[in-house]
Automatic annotation (TrEMBL):
Transcription regulation recorded as keyword: yes
Protein name: GntR family transcriptional regulator
Keyword Phosphoprotein on entry: no
A Pfam family the protein falls into: Amidohydro_2
Ranges where the GntR C-terminal domain occurs: 3-105
Length: 422
């Protein structure tokens, strides 16, 4: 909800908190104002089931008439309650889902305790810990062999997004990951790259390593000048580290808001400012159908922005969805680059060809071919469809581009050269 809420919904939440603040000051209508605040949050989620659940909890379990009588006589209790609600609003405002969940859960548990439902504090700690420890299922390996494509690729053709996965015994994965990938070395990738006729590539830090970029950086050292990198950094990453990564070929920072990576919406602006002096870009992995104010957020950043996987929205939303229309506008206005990749991540088709993705890809190319990139997304981690053949994925791109050699060269060669500095 923190990324889905619109400005009007955020304004409604703020208004509800203001009304609650007044109620606490006067001692009148405190329960009603508390319920109204929680209803405003529930409305902003757009999830009817969650909305009904929140209404049930607040109306039937955690609010009591006795609470209103007690809070009216205790200034300290009024301040405590107001601080809890302000923490929820602050987390929603900055767009931090984890912080918002924790703030809301803290308020619910404390409210239960204040109203006589005892013994939940220890369970609250256990529950909040388990929220960050989901099962990380193993991924299938990529197809080990592929064939040459039907069209020869132009010299300097670039794959703008692939991952290198090292030995987990040497470079352990973060425990707070969403999947467990198999090893995928640079040598393995080069075999596929050579068969397809690609000569350049962009190594992208996968979420399973969090802020530990060592595997990607070592691959850049091995790969040489035909490779560039996109890493994940924090506000603790030093200028010296950034300069060292820049010398290795790093040209961007990934902000992953779908798979657990330790990065949140609130990091976007601060990261952009941090890397702007280097001329780096931000690469956003987001679901554009759930991202409110997409155009204004992206267009006002002080760096170039790349949107992963065509916006990673469900293929069922349609090309007229406001989020996709914003994405088209960003590309058309030159405010964002968009990667034609990861069709299997949002298709409703059980296997290739991913025909329901075709309208989106064609619309993006039509909007502005000068802002479009292509990527294999090798080794295709964490997908729910059969493992695709990389040649088939490239052939699908040819079809999206209408087999137009000028468009294909622009997307595979010219655009990556501009963005990554080949």
């Amino acid at each position: 909800m923190t990324s889905r809420r619109s400005r009007s919904q955020l304004a409604a939440i703020r208004a509800a908190l203001s009304a609650l603040r007044d109620a606490l000051a006067t001692g009148q209508g405190m329960v009603e104002s508390s319920l109204a605040f929680k209803r405003a949050i529930a409305d902003a989620t757009g999830n009817e089931y969650f909305k009904n659940f929140v209404l049930f909890l607040t109306a039937h379990i955690f609010e009591a008439a006795s609470f209103e009588r007690r809070i009216a006589t205790s200034e300290a209790l009024r301040e405590t309650v107001l601080t809890e609600y302000e923490a929820i609003l602050e987390a929603i405002t900055v767009g931090d889902p984890d912080l918002a969940r924790r703030a809301a859960w803290t308020q619910i548990i404390n409210s239960a305790e204040r109203n006589g439902l005892r013994g939940l504090q220890g369970w609250e700690v256990t529950r909040m810990t388990s929220l960050g420890e989901t099962y990380a299922p193993p991924c299938a390996p990529p197809v080990s062999s592929c064939r040459a494509p039907s069209m020869p690729l132009p010299e300097g053709a670039c794959d703008c997004h692939f991952h290198i996965i090292g030995d987990a015994a040497v470079h352990p994965f973060t425990p707070h990951r969403s999947y467990t990938p198999p090893p995928a070395s640079l040598d393995d990738y080069r075999k596929m790259q050579g068969t397809l006729g690609l000569s350049r590539g962009v190594i992208v830090q996968p979420s399973v390593y969090g802020y530990d970029n060592r595997v990607a950086l070592e691959a850049l050292r091995q790969g040489g000048d035909n490779y560039r990198g996109v890493v994940v950094i924090s506000d603790q990453t030093s200028e010296r580290e950034l300069r060292e990564m820049d010398a290795l070929g790093v040209r961007g920072v990934r902000v992953n808001l779908i798979y657990k990576s330790g990065v949140e919406v609130s990091d976007v602006t601060s990261l952009a400012r941090k890397v702007a002096p280097l001329g780096w870009h931000l690469q956003l992995l987001i679901d554009i159908s759930e991202f409110a104010d997409l155009y204004d957020t992206v267009a006002n950043l002080p760096v170039e922005v790349v949107i992963d996987h065509m916006g990673h929205m469900p293929a069922s939303i349609g090309v007229k969805h406001p989020g996709f229309r914003d994405l088209l506008r960003l590309a058309r206005d030159g405010k964002a680059w968009v990667k034609l990749s990861g069709a299997y991540r949002f298709t409703n088709q059980p296997d290739t060809p991913y025909s329901d993705v075709t309208p989106y890809a064609k619309a993006l190319i039509k909007a502005n071919p000068d802002q479009i990139l292509w990527a294999s997304d090798w080794p295709h981690v964490c997908i729910s469809v059969p493992m695709p053949d990389d040649t088939t994925l490239l052939e699908e791109f040819f079809q999206w581009a209408g087999h137009d050699e000028t468009i294909i060269r622009k997307i595979l060669v010219d655009n990556p050269a501009r963005l990554y500095g080949f």
